[in-house]
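User: I'm putting together notes for a lab meeting next week and I want to include a structural view of one of the chains we've been expressing. I don't have a solved structure, so I'd like a prediction I can at least talk through. The sequence is below, exactly as it appears in our construct file.
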Amino acid sequence: MSSFSLNGRRAFVSGANTGIGQAIAVDLAQHGCHVIVVGRSSMADTLAAVRAVGGKADPLEADLGTVSGATAAFEAAVQRFGPIDTLINNAGIIRRADSLVFTEEDWDAVMDINLKVVFFLSQAFARARTVAGQAGSIINIASLLSFQGGIRVPSYTASKSGVAGLTKLLSNEWAARGITVNAVAPGYVVTNNTEALREDAARNQAILDRIPAGRWAEPSDIAGAVTFLASPAARYVTGITLPVDGGWLGR
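Assistant: Thanks for the context. Below is the predicted structure for the 251-residue chain, given as structure tokens.
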């Protein structure tokens, strides 16, 4: 069997209804993984896309904005579908405003789903794998703002910087248990979260001028890196945050 094959494995992908999460689910499924797609809205489009490539996926509705909702969803997935080999912490939100007027409500909403839930879902996953005495993999979705400051997104930058740090810490604690913990940091990707940037002609052009590849990423550009980190080929890779940015950080 190829070291890139995910046959016989099962993954829990949060925020898989659209964008990067959907592309990850499709790519994992295409490599043989049974994917549990999780979110608060309909997964119909994702399920159709997975089936179109001959893959297997099952949906699970959940409130991923709270620790209780997210961990209950993970436990339900294990009970309904069996042990989870890979956790993809993809669900996230962004709020934009000048730091002088940024609200506590927007700060808490972003930090809760982008960082707090990431930790406690990872904890639930690692506990389950440890009890079973089995290896596993966690892939977090970070950001270019895990490395840079950005503007007008203070809670997003703080949360994604936290994701990079948390990835290192958890990898240190869990590597000896056979659990790898890595992150992928997408560059500028065509998703709902970036719609406002793409509609701002000046900002859009400034971004394109900085990307050596000369284009925004498509969600599918991110998915391959996630699939690699979930595969046996990456069994000795842990603690990294891998930029997938068209060369942005190297500029």
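A couple of points you could mention at the meeting. The domain at 10-189+219-245 is CATH 3.40.50.720 (Rossmann fold). The longest helix spans residues 104-132.

User: Perfect, that's what I needed.
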